[in-house]
Amino acid sequence: MQSCIRTWWHLEQIPLKRVVCLRFNRLLVFRLRLKFTAPCESLESLMEPNPTTLPPLRPGTLYLVATPIGNLEDITLRALRVLKECDVVAAEDTRHSGRLLQHFGLSKPLLSYFQFNEARRGEEILERLRRGEKVALVTDAGTPGISDPGTRVVAAALRAGLRVEAVPGPCALVAALTASGLPTEEFHFVGFLPHKSGQRHRQLEGLKAVPGTLVFYESPYRVVKLLEELALLYPTRRTVLARELTKKFEEIASGFPAELLEGYRERTAKGEYVVLVGPDTA
Prior knowledge:
The chain is an alpha/beta fold. Helix content is about 45%, strand content about 15%. It contains eleven helices and ten strands. The radius of gyration is 25 Å and the shape is elongated.
């Protein structure tokens, strides 16, 4: 597309008198036309790829398929192809993933794979891979293994010498970090903090020495508690709360922990939060 734009720009810069002097030389016009149309034809071919030129899914491969975190338009073309061509979909919640597949006109056998059956179901997934099946692993939203099931079966598959392939896409961590305005050159992803106050406090205290932006996931039921802890331990660090990312009521709030706490103490929190704490600039 940039090549096309540059070609038009160059044509517009040619003085009118010079164009007249050229007398629309057929050879020159033909060359200009080739120079202009070739990149556009390549762009169109990329936008409408021929399915026969795409590499087939590899037998015996575990595909980690990222799915939308709210906006269904965020699913990738590759994710849809993998979900269409795989043999089975291992899902954190088969009902939720079934509705997702149905929305895109897909139908596949579903296999439940969640926190409390990872060990047993993981062995079944490995057996399927050994038989040459193509298994797609999805969670309720986002990228498998990022504070969601997936890490355990991936490690087991790699130990067994099986192939694992990521199908990247939506991730709340990345969406919040890039839109936060906080430094992105170096960050530390924590995920969910422990529920118990003592453990939370010790972990937050230990993270003080970690450079870069800190990123947490937090439940709406504990976000006020986390802000109270941040106000105590990180009072001068810029903090960002991101919720309902990619959805209609997406909200990203920024300020010091005490400022955010004042606004959130009296409101009813909804949706899971991504909480980001900027580095100490003192």
